Amino acid sequence: MSRTVSGAGRVLRVLKALKGHTVTGISNNDLAQITGDSPSNVTRAVQTLIEEGFAVKLDNGRFAHSIALLQIAQAHAEHMARLTGRLHEINQRVAAGSMS
């Protein structure tokens, strides 16, 4: 496996490990334990996430998903809600036999 691919994988594992810690954050050591990686490798991965706008370091020294990442998740949820509404509308029209 190339170094770039393994580094990208590490960053993505850390990103996933941040899940559920948006408000209180999670420590570097806890991230290392969850991902099975060394604290120094986790530090580099978190720094990449911070530089790319996907994570932040909180005032308590812990790490969490950034507002920008949460906005991406919110946009996805809103998109799915719109699609669900549109599908519901189409289904109602089909059921009523008035599909144009």
Strands, total number: 2
Radius of gyration: 20 Å
Q: What is the end-to-end distance?
A: 54 Å
Low-confidence blocks of residues: none
User: Given the structure, what is the number of helices?
Assistant: 4
The fold-level CATH name of the largest domain is: Arc Repressor Mutant, subunit A
Find the structural class using helix and strand composition.
mainly alpha
Largest sheet: 2 strands, antiparallel
**CATH top level label of the largest domain:** Mainly Alpha
Would you write up a description of this structure?
This protein is mainly α and 100 residues long. The protein has 2 domains: 1-65, Orthogonal Bundle (Arc Repressor Mutant, subunit A), CATH 1.10.10.10; 67-100. Helices cover 66% and strands 6% of the residues. The chain has 4 helices and 2 strands; from the N terminus they run αααββα. It has helices at 3-17, 28-35, 39-51, 67-96; strands at 55-57, 63-65. It has a two-stranded antiparallel sheet with strand order 1-2. Strand 1 (55-57) and strand 2 (63-65) form a beta hairpin. It is elongated, with a radius of gyration of 20 Å. The chain starts with a helix and ends with a helix.
Task: Write a brief caption for the model.
This protein is mainly alpha-helical. It is built from four helices and two strands; from the N terminus they run αααββα. It has helices at residues 3-17, 28-35, 39-51, 67-96; strands at 55-57, 63-65.
